[in-house]
Each structure stands twice: as structure tokens, then as C-alpha cells.
Amino acid sequence: xxxxxxxxxxxxxxxxxxxxxxxxxxxxxxxxxxxxxxxxxxxxxxxxxxxxxxxxxxxxxxxxxxxxxxxxxxxxxxxxxxxxxxxxxxxxxxxxxxxxxxxxxxxxxxxxxxxxxxxxxxxxxxxxxxxxxxxxxxxxxxxxxxxxxxxxxxxxxxxxxxxxxxxxxxxxxxxxxxxxxxxxxxxxxxxxxxxxxxxxxxxxxxxxxxxxxxxxxxxxxxxxxxxxxxxxxxxxxxxxxxxxxxxxxxxxxxxxxxxxxxxxxxxxxxxxxxxxxxxxxxxx
Length: 284
Fold this sequence. Notes:
With about 280 residues, this protein is α+β, with helices and mostly antiparallel strands. Helix content is about 15%, strand content about 35%. It is built from four helices and 13 strands. The chain has a seven-stranded mixed sheet, with no helix packed on it. The protein has a six-stranded mixed sheet with strand order 5-8-3-2-10-11, with no helix packed on it. A hairpin with a 2-residue loop joins β10 (about 235-240) and β11 (about 245-250). The longest helix is centred in the N-terminal third of the chain and has 15 residues, at about 20-35. The protein starts with a helix and ends in a 14-residue tail after the last strand.
């Protein structure tokens, strides 16, 4: 079992457990170089999909090349379509293990309009399903960051777990983060989620913030939700409360998402797409 062998080598801290990255990269690039021209279109389609799902990241030091690649949707930028309302939640596994492979994550968002204020509540629901004898790690130690636009107000993080035996409850950062990209703000902290039986293996993070609700000329308001690189198709559900009515949408975070609100509807769509193509040559 390839995955099992890699996890075991990582857990044992063998001297060669990281060489798989360079060994695999060489083999993969060699296979790509040997592809016949008839397979190039399929290759680009696969890479477009991987990029859209954030399993492939591309960055170039040359600014002109980076700009050209970004125009194809292959970008590492935050908020690539520059929407005035933006969110992204990121978790960094800090334990030096693979405990997050059995983590179950779901998102619940409630959007509530009150005049010109749009209140956002984003609940990140985490369940640690690692068995007690997992050789790849049991407790999930993570540094959590939540990004939104600098113009958002009242951003805060709270613990929504009413029960459970968390060994290290989330600790908000004591000092301002000097590494926040220009135009954005973050709320962050650290938690350890244990592997014990339910409900102790369950944790909820709740992020709240407000924006100014200003629909465009067509009467719609858009939110760009950026997916964390490397995660899978985590389920999401969204509740939109406006004018005394409630509307709902559901889906997954397999790709970046666009949430479009109107006075009577909510739509969950795809965010920026990747559209690289094989250049065509015409002599006509």
C-alpha cells in the first residue's frame, strides 16, 4: 500500500522519508516529458482541474510570467477576483504528523442582513476520527487563520463547542500579526483536538464579522470564498436571512466558491476557474 508505506516512513522518521518528494517529482516530470502530442490537451485539462481544486500550486519569480499565469486562473493570490467581500479559512497541522488525514471538516455559514449591514457567521465544524492506535498521529494540533478584507468590521473568533475534553483550547494570538497581506485582516489561534470518543473528538470554531451590504445595479451581492490548498471537498451549507425570509444553499468546497445574494435568492457557484489551453497555430 503506497499511502500506508509513506505514512509509516514519516512516522518512523526514517532518514530517507522525505526523498520520496524529489524521487516522485523526477519520475512524474519524466513521464510528462515523454507524453505524445495527442495527450497534451488531456494533460492541460488535468492540470486545470488540479489547480482549480488547489492541489497544484504554481509560482514564478519572474513577475511577467507570474502575471501571465495568473491571467489563466493559475494564481496563488488571495481574493483573485478582487471581490469586496472575501473569506478564507486555513489550518496548519503543527504536530509533524499526518493526524489530519482522518479529520472531518464541514462549514456552516449564516448571513444576516440588517439594513446596510451584512453579518457573517462562519462555523468550522471539526471531528477527529483518528483511532487511538494510529501510527501516523492521533491528536490534531493546528494553527488556524481566518482571512477577510481589511474593510470588514467586528471580526472575532469564539469557541462554539459546548461539550468535549479539549486538551488545549484555542488561544487567540497575543500580539498583532505583522505578516498579514496588505488589504486583508486575520483572526487566528491554536488548538489541539484529541482523538477520544465523541463528543470529545468534536470542536467548533466560530468566526463573526460584518460588511456593508451594497448590492450592485442588478440587485446582487457577491462573496468570494477561497479554498485552502490541499483539502478535499468539505461539505458546506449556507443560510441567508433577509427581509424576514430565509433562503438556503448547500454544496462543497472542492473549489473556490462564489456566493451571490439577492432580495429573494441565494446562489452558490464556482469562483475563479482555470482556463489554460494548448496554443493553436493557424496558417489560414
